[in-house]
Structure formats: C-alpha cells, structure tokens
C-alpha cells in the first residue's frame, strides 16, 4: 500500500533540479548510476503494485526509452520487471550508438539478459512505461520520439511516466505537441513545479514521488525545511502526492 502524503512538499524548478543533480554528483559523491538504480527500482515497484495487480508473472510491459537519464531509469525498471517474470519489450527513440554512457551500460545489461528490442510499440500490453524525454526538453518532440509518443497516446494501454510525461515542460507545466498523456507519473526526489499546473493535470495523471537517496540537507541551499523533508519518505520510498 503506497501512502498518500498529508501535506505535499514544495515544487522545485528545472534549474533547481539541475543543481540537485550537480550537488549529488560533485558534493555528495552519489553518482548517476546509483540514482538511476534507485529510480528504476521504485518505478518497477510502482508498476507492479498499481498496474500489474502486484502479480508480475506473465504480464506484458512495453518500455519506451530515450538516450538520456530517463531512458536509463526505465531500462533499470525493465530489468527488474524481467527478473520478476514480466514479458518486457524495449523501444528506443534513437540509435543504440547515440545512447549516453550510463543508459548505454543499462542497455548492454538488458542485452545480456535477453531483452526484446522492438522497432515499434507492440499492439498488446498491460502497461507502457515512458522514459523518452526528461526535464531537458527543448521545443516539440521530433523524429522517432514524436512517433513513439503519438503511438502511446493512440493505444488503449495505460502509460506510466518516469519523472515527467515526455513532452511536458517541468517548470511551466506547458505540454509540447505531442506530449504523453500518462495514467500516472513517478517523479523523482522532489516534485517539479510544472507538474501541479492546470494545463499539466490531464497529462500527469496520478502523481507519485520516489526517493532516489538525495540527502535532505541538500535542499537547505534552496531554503527548504530539512526536518519536513526528512518526513516525506519516512513510511515508504514511494509516496502519492495529494490532488
């Protein structure tokens, strides 16, 4: 049972999230692979509990991965789900050689355990997991990313997005054209301001927050109450944000 927060934490901006990432790696020595593993595990747990009826065996999940950090996170989730008996298919929005280094390593691992790599989104599935575009989006999605987002939206399969629905500006909450319409979004560390806007609501779906091991004292640089930050994940590494 995933607990719902009694009081929602403050939203942060995209520049603040970039600073969180910088401090994590430079000051706290918690590098991207560690954060990615935490994100992917929590994503797989949420997928299993909310969308797969807590029974992963023989379910069908399609994972959509871009070249950056979100793509790496959903590939971690793919590995976890495969280990639990899920039939997982992977669709990449870019050529394999264009994956950034950490997601490329995750893809290599998936190859060793037998991931099914597809060119297009399979027609039948229990869940689509979206990790095509993260908070670094600039302009409207193009090329294969655009095609994948449109295909996911056209299907009748529920979509679970990592950190943000692909195509949503996390500071303004403005959806690009196209933008994933998720049934649920698992955002990371702290919710981003754009997820709470009226314009974003129909794209975000149910909003969850995952602990990726950001030290609460890090948020002190933004003037946040560290004692309150420590309470967020005291019951669970995944919490639901109140509507």
Describe the structure.
Helix 2 crosses helix 3 and helix 3 packs parallel to helix 4. The protein is built from 7 helices and 8 strands. It has one domain: YjeF N-terminal domain (Rossmann fold, 3-Layer(aba) Sandwich). An 8-stranded mixed beta sheet has the order 3-2-1-4-5-6-7-8, sandwiched between helices. The protein is of the alpha/beta class and 243 residues long.
In short:
The chain is α/β, with parallel strands linked by helices and 243 residues long.
List the helices and strands and how they pair.
Layout: H1 14-26, H2 32-51, E1 60-65, H3 69-83, E2 87-92, H4 101-112, E3 116-118, E4 127-131, H5 143-154, E5 159-162, E6 184-188, H6 201-204, E7 206-210, H7 226-231, E8 238-240
Parallel strand pairs: 1-2, 1-4, 2-3, 4-5, 5-6, 6-7
Antiparallel strand pairs: 7-8
| Strand residue content | 15-25%
Main sheet specs = 8 strands, mixed
Helix tally equals 7
| Terminal Cα span | 18 Å
The coarse silhouette is globular
CATH class: Alpha Beta
Q: How many structural domains can be distinguished in the coordinates?
A: 1
Specify Rg, calculated over alpha carbons.
Answer: 17 Å
Uncertain runs are none
Task: Describe the structure using short key phrases.
34% helix; Rossmann fold; globular; 7 helices; 243 residues; 15% strand; alpha/beta; eight-stranded mixed sheet
